[in-house]
Amino acid sequence: MSTEPILRISGVHTYYGKIEALKGIDVEVNEGEIVTLIGSNGAGKTTLLMTVCGDPQAQEGQILFEGKDITKVPTDQIVRMGIAQSPEGRRIFSRMSVYENLQMGALVTDPKYFNEDLAKVYKLFPRLEERRDQRGGTLSGGEQQMLAIGRALMSRPRLLLLDEPSLGIAPLVVRQIFQAIKEVNEKEGMTIFLVEQNAFHALKLAHRAYVLVNGKVAMSGTGQELLSNPEIRAAYLEGGH
Amino acid sequence: MADTVIDTKKPGLMVGWLDLGAMLKECVITALLSAVLFLPFIALHADTGGSGGLVIETRWDSWAWFVLAAFVGRALLVVWRENPSSRTRDMLAKTVVTPVGGFFRKNMVAIGLVALVLAVLFPISPFGNRYSVDVATTWMIYIMLGWGLNIVVGLAGLLDLGYVAFYAVGAYSYALLSQTFGWSFWVCLPLAGVFAAFFGVILGFPVLRLRGDYLAIVTLGFGEIIRVILLNWYNVTNGPDGISGIERPTLFGLEFGRNAAEGGTTFHDFFGLEYSTMYRVVFLFYLILALAVLTNLFTQRIRKLPVGRAWEALREDEIACRSLGMNPTNIKLSAFALGAMFGGFAGSFFATRQGFISPESFTFIESAVILAIVVLGGMGSQIGVVIAAFFLIVLPEMAREFEQYRMLVFGAAMVAVMVWRPRGLLSYRDPTILFSKITGRKSTGREHQA
What we know:
The complex is a heterodimer.
Chain A: E1 7-16, E2 19-29, E3 34-38, H1 45-52, E4 60-65, E5 68-69, H2 75-81, E6 83-86, H3 98-105, H4 114-124, H5 126-130, H6 141-153, E7 159-163, H7 171-188, E8 191-196, H8 199-205, E9 208-213, E10 216-222, H9 223-228, H10 230-237
Parallel strand pairs in A: 3-8, 3-9, 6-7, 7-8
Antiparallel strand pairs in A: 1-2, 1-4, 4-5, 9-10
Helix pairs in contact in A: 3-6
Chain B: H1 2-8, E1 14-15, E2 18-19, H2 20-43, E3 44-48, E4 54-58, H3 60-82, H4 88-93, H5 98-106, H6 108-121, H7 130-155, H8 164-181, H9 185-204, H10 212-232, H11 234-237, E5 243-244, E6 254-255, E7 265-266, H12 267-270, H13 278-302, H14 306-316, H15 318-323, H16 328-354, E8 356-357, H17 364-377, H18 382-398, H19 403-420, H20 441-448
Parallel strand pairs in B: 6-7
Antiparallel strand pairs in B: 1-2, 3-4, 5-8
Helix pairs in contact in B: 2-3, 7-13, 7-16, 7-17, 7-18, 8-9, 8-10, 8-16, 9-16, 13-16, 14-16, 17-18
């Protein structure tokens, strides 16, 4: 792995007002990898993901995407550079139809790719095709998550950021969604940066993982290493998954 | 289950789901019954004659109108009853918003076209007297304002309490441009739109970060600022005295006055007609109709374009918008600017129609009425605006005799709408594209909830 990582986060500090949410984070994501970030509530997982997207922007440190500094680039520009995000809580457009939601995802791309991308998303989540006329808000939680991921994929990203795709979703559907994430990674070679509370699933899926505690990276390693680490087991995995 | 009732009958002349023969029979029976019933009540009228005795006079024309009304009413009832989407028994199973929404939704294009044809025919129909065309013109102005504000409030979800400011900017732009430079209405109209759009952007910039109630308060203040400026900038706006003698619009250079200005031709001379003030009234009606239709077509079209979609997405979720690469700044500014532009068009029309404007015409209550039209109509619904404007503008106008109770009834009607149809009269949003035709109750029932 001599090549430059697709995403390099170095020494990033992010503040909410005076509160320091991220206290010097170093994370790297290589092309074609699934990297996961686990940690408890309030550790700063979502903040880190949002900082990559420039909302809020990092006060110190640097974020490089494909070698370009995106630390101070506005959010909408970052998306146009090839980073797509499925935000926390899914945030689909609830009054718009499934199809329209997917159209919204493709706003930043050349329309000529639309049909091809749409077919890919439908193949990944056949459920979305069945429900294409239905309002987003009337989908189940799992379907909404599929829609959020599908919508993010419609922008033809080279890096996909997923924020807690398992949030509030039935265990069976969680497995389906993680299966789909794996598929996108393997078939399309999509690089994925995944934030999860569901550490067990996330670590099983990920090539590499970072553990975030109180705004700092406490540990990192391959998914398997962390899965078998007794500390991690005690903190995040015991008591069911 | 809806079809079984129709199937058991012998099919007569069927038009879609409607059995014309059966309908005609019902209507004729109803008309005959009412003809008999109304004979003593309407057709024969007892009055005190000259010598003090009772004289019976006949009023066959009124009687005929009543019978006709019964006939048409029955026809409408049958259509409503037979329509598979609005069967009485099914209504019970549907949510509160479904029945009306369902009917309008499925016949949206047809209703729109019928309404347009009726509007075009209205001035030349027997109902088109000076007063009624005038009222209809006022109605159209508010429809246009409602459609313009719908872009900002209904589509982009930005609560704007100062919309009348753009109306005022449009009106004053036209009045001042026309009086200062002597430009005609047709030159000033687009300019007034541009000026209003410019003011829309000016309002847009400071409020970019605001949403909901905060945004509402700032826009409210903006509306007042414009009015106060108009009131106090005496050199330019003539203050509270207003601007009078505003030039009337021409039809391709043909004027509507009795006598043409130097070198001009009047409309009635050109077509060899008798002079009548009616021509101008009717012309103004068609003018505002055209402007309103333009507004509507524009809105319908832009909803299908990326920028219109972005407005709706912004209304739903700003964070999601940003995470999809949309720039909320541009989206909000474009919504403010385009909404304001149509307000400006309506404003110049208002100025040219009245011939006189003063800040008094642009008070907060106007903004409130326009917003009420949009909200009552159902945010984002185009036909809803037409209906709501009828209730808010035309009905109070017709009920002038009950002047004292007007506001009372108005308030009660608002409360009633909010109780029974809390999301507006027509509260649904149609996707801009659909793959399966909306016919079954299955999909629509689900769509109307949540």
